[in-house]
Amino acid sequence: MASSSLVVPLVLWNRLPSSPVTTVVYKEGHVATGLKDGFIWIYRCIVDEQGVLQLQHKVLCIGHKSAITALTITEGQTDGCVGNNYVLISASEDGEVMKWCLLDGRCLVCIPKAFDGMIRSIKPLATCAETPKFLLCSGFADEITILNSSSLEIVRVWAGHNDWVACTPFYDSDARQIKLLSSNFNGFLKIWAFDEIKQTIIKEYDNVGILQAQGDKILELINNPYDIGVIMAITNNFIIIFTIRRGKMHNMQSIRILKNGAFWTSGAFLTKNMILVCTQAGDAHLYSITCTPRKYPSENGHLPMNPGFIPRRSSLPDLKKTNKEKLSIPGHAKPKLVESIYSSNNEFLDLTKIIVFATPSVEGKTSRWYMISFRNQLEGTSFSWKLLSTTAQEYPICERHVQESSWGSETYLSDIWPLRNYQSPKITVITMVNDDQIAFGYENGEICIMPISTALTMDSQDTSSLNTIKTLKGHFGKITCMYTPSFTHSDHKHFVSGGEDCSVRIWSLENGKRLTSFTYHSMPVTHLFEPPAETCGRTRGCIISIAKDNSLSIISLDEMSCLYNFGGYSHHICKIQWRIPENLLLLYYGDESTHIWQTNTSELYQIVKGSTAREMIVDKAWQTSTVSPHDSLSYANNKVKALSSINLQNNGVSDCQIFMINVKQLINDIYHYHVSQIGSRVNTPVVNTEDFDEKPDKLSKIFSWSTNGASQQCITSSSPSISETETQAIDASSVQILVSALMTWGVDNSLDRVCSEKLGLKKPSNQISFGLRGFNGNLSVAAPSNDHREFWKISQTMTAAHLLSIVGLTRPFLLMKGLEKYTSDIITHYGTMLPEFVGTKFHHSSLAFLSKYFQDPAEDIRHSARTLFSAALTSMPPIELQSIIDYWKQFLPAVTSQDVYAQQYMAKSTILLGMIGADHPKFLSKKVSENTALSLILILHEDPKLAHRLAALELCGKGFSTWEPYFDAVAVVKTILGLAIDSDTNVAALKAMAQKAIFQIASVNTPLCISTLTYDTNNSKKPAEKNGFLKLISLFIRKKPLVLYSSLSSLVEAVVKSLDPNIAKMRDTVLQTTTNVLHDLVKTFPSIAFHGATQKLAVGTQEGASIIYDLRTATRCHILEGHTRAVTAVTFSGDGKIIVSCSLEEGTVRVWNPSPGLFGMLAGSLTNGNNSKSEGKKFKPLSTSTKPCKTFRFNLGDDARLPVPSILNTVYFEWTVERTVKLHVENSIMSFNI
């Protein structure tokens, strides 16, 4: 059965990942900056009571492989939680587009090639105040791509332009809908209409106008969200403002650049009459646009408004009353310069990025306008902020002198980094040596190898007093790469390093001594890795080193010599193909050329280019290694499945090491390798991962393969150096330190003492933080913090993932340590008390995240997810819970179609709301409960995923009392019964869950469940089906006997009928099963007795009668009437001629001596006849009624008022001699002489 993965990134920070800022956006207290290396930083933007602005590092988004070129923030909830209403859309230089959660940076969706060119602008396309459904991507290309804002799928490629094109949506007041305005570089304007249903583009106006920019290229078009049809165009030397009305351009006005050598880079509308424009140097200028009234058609008095593009009605003229619109300035007026903010720092590397935003006051009105600028300098990126003057914010603008000011003092981003006081030698490389050791390479040429526990619990550079650390010295200049070989012919364990001194050095891991060194390169070494294990000849057991000049050496670890050395080239090596049997080595370079080297002579044999080179290198007959040209990410190869690592590098310096903890695999390893050895538990299986809404991890192969930028690709195996049989157990000490790192320290002193003194855990270093793995394995990691409370204030999903990891690991870890008694302390702390310790900004767990693990096959994860889900429900503020319900109810299958929303959202919403309704029905309205109930049935019948059907089954049973009023309960019970008896081995899990569900339903509505089971058993025509029902009855008897107690008579009737001799085929098929059922009935219930010699079965009923069946004929032969209350117990005498019954409620024991009589004797002959017509007809039992021959009365008082469990366990008859029977009732024994 598939399940959701649970991989938690654990980050060991070295320094701030710094790269030039390429683009910046702001929304709701968050600033997001795109970086040149492809990363994205999300900052908290805080304005204190004094109006001082502060930035705080929050999360780093890791996924793009090239520079970020565009960012935008749009509405779009990710899990329905309050405050989680926005998503960040990013585009990189290679055309890749990704969507991230703004709160925690979790990657939601990505599309590798969304644009054929470089995206410079992403704009939401929305209508009528709805959440944007589409995105417009434009840039350095002659086409525009329209994407689905939810899935990022390409909806339309809008091509056919004769030049690079810019585009913006705007509201067409005449057509009352959103239109698209495009301009090529030469300023030719066109208007287009986009049909959302047909997803087609239609040109409506071809000659809208030409923007006069004196030869400048049109770089961007920006729509005024506060005024209808007003557009801003940006060129290097001009800001052009114009109005679109009835397909034509009006009132074009321009603002020329104010300084020689400067050029415009960006602009924004602050209000309907205020604009802010900026230059590349960081100068910002505020202009006022004077509006003049104009007659407006009365039929347009009720315009649909879109907050993204059209202003709120309060910011527009009252069209109802005046029938006027305010249009842009007439031709004789010009924009008025109000304020200028100049930059005093002219030392910058590239364009200064500026954003402007308003902070709302308590009443919700705009109170202050802030600007933030980011400037890339030699020392790093700095930022400064500026509060616009009060005069500039007043409306209307009066005649005043232009106010001039300068930006505030600059602050480097490194100065607000939480670890800014961390002084130590710079770490340039971090890599995993083996499963419990890590190596740090330094700028001074030293290498320190230490246990992971040491690295995670102390400052990794403070090595003075630790004897567990090996220090390797020998390189001159910084360490550039390190590698631990996985295969050698010798027994020695080696460690290989490369440095800025162009040397490759080989060390002994046992004693840390240098074995040898090689200097065959003339530039720093950049890559170290092994050839594929399947290669033969001398290359086995070798190390490949690549230098910055793309020269390559092959070094034998067995011979301690350099076997081959191949010269450099101007382009980087992309692939290496190993044709050792032919004495050839093929090097494929970035210019699409293949160099063929002869290994026996080390001579360049031939250079092939173009398609021939590409065809040669993709030949699958030979092993191939892939070399990554990027050094920002490198992946370490671990034999322990539960732990892998990634190293972030920038400019040859390591930023951080990310340990990927596979929590479910770690739990499995704990049980298998540690707990099972002390007999506590057997291995818990962990299956392949497949999420409800999470695609398979495309980076998983890279994680397993790559080291320091080189990845090996092999035809026969996904990993040449690590096979399934070579995987190892994680060391117990490593488990302990990983659990230590996941725990939250410093919020509860009593728990800290328990963890440190009782459990042996160690407080981790402040360099440790956590993260999330999102779509396609892309990561978001939290910035480090000196206060662990901050990690619980990031987002609901971050809280849920962190909590699930801690609580899920608690029980197996404590079992491993033999300290199970502390389990409840830890779970109580994290499950219920944590919000109190963290404070008001605590983010409660995401219910959507936890619901993914509702049917997880890993028991600890499944139970932890359910516990945390219930805890979050009870502690979550009502407004937040209602927001979640309102968000997810729209995806229920009962109210939407699969064409609108993906099936995974439909299933997820059903499971989430089903979990809420099953445990807390009061939280759901009647309508939501009804739709959830119907959706559960749809999922049960139609969903192809087993995990979804299992969840629907369990929720149908668990919440039956909630859903019963809203669906056909009988039909649902029949469906579940059908699944519960299914003999198909492929759905064994479904059968087991259906049985569990039917037990739960029987506990809620016993009459409905048992009557339906009895009816279906009676009326089943197929032997296999009837056999299944009988087995289910047997299961009820063994597991839920109390449920059957009140319905025993009808149930036994159905069981006996299955032995009808007139239906021989049916009887033969079910005979063994029926025998087992009858055995279980007699053994379990004192009101049922069987006499083997006569094949008679006696059943006492709740009405006071006892029915005697002849199992040979499957008929009633006697009905013993005499008791006025329920019969508690019955028994046969040894010869079967006498029957004794007891009713505790009545206080009597009655003795029966039934004789068949003429009617009874005729019954057997009538039913045993060979009348073929009787087969399949409705069963009509033949019987006689008999009165008791003797009655005994007794009085046990209150002792006779026994609950059903006590009756089943303590009441029975015992025959002592032929005519004496004893009745046992708990501790009382009564003897009767009959």
Secondary-structure map:
Blueprint lengths: L6 E7 L7 E7 L2 E6 L4 E8 L5 E10 L5 E8 L10 E7 L4 E5 L5 E5 L6 E8 L8 E7 L3 E5 L5 E5 L6 E8 L4 E8 L3 E8 L4 E11 L9 E4 L6 E5 L3 E8 L2 E9 L7 E8 L2 E6 L4 E5 L3 E4 L23 H4 L1 E4 L8 E7 L10 E8 L5 E12 L2 E8 L2 H4 L9 E4 L4 E2 L14 E6 L4 E6 L4 E5 H6 L12 E3 L6 E5 L10 E6 L4 E5 L5 E5 L6 E5 L12 E6 L4 E5 L4 E6 L6 E7 L4 E6 L3 E6 L4 E7 L1 H7 L5 E5 L5 E4 L6 E8 L2 E10 H13 L24 H6 L4 E4 L18 H11 L6 H10 L9 E6 L5 E4 L13 H22 L5 H16 L8 H5 L7 H17 L2 H11 L14 H17 L6 H17 L3 H13 L1 H4 L5 H12 L7 H17 L1 H14 L3 H17 L1 H4 L3 H10 L6 H21 L3 E4 ...
Parallel strand pairs: 27-31, 59-63
Antiparallel strand pairs: 1-52, 1-54, 2-3, 3-4, 4-5, 5-55, 6-7, 7-8, 8-9, 10-11, 11-12, 12-13, 14-15, 15-16, 16-17, 18-19, 19-20, 20-21, 22-23, 23-24, 24-27, 25-26, 28-29, 29-30, 30-32, 33-34, 34-35, 35-36, 37-38, 38-39, 39-40, 41-42, 42-43, 43-44, 45-46, 45-49, 46-47, 47-48, 49-53, 50-51, ...
Helix pairs in contact: 5-9, 7-9, 9-10, 9-12, 14-15, 14-16, 15-16, 16-19, 18-19, 18-20, 19-20, 20-21, 20-23, 21-24
Organism: Gigaspora margarita
Keywords: WD repeat
InterPro entries: ARM-type_fold, WD40/YVTN_repeat-like_dom_sf, WD40_repeat_dom_sf, WD40_rpt, WDR72-like
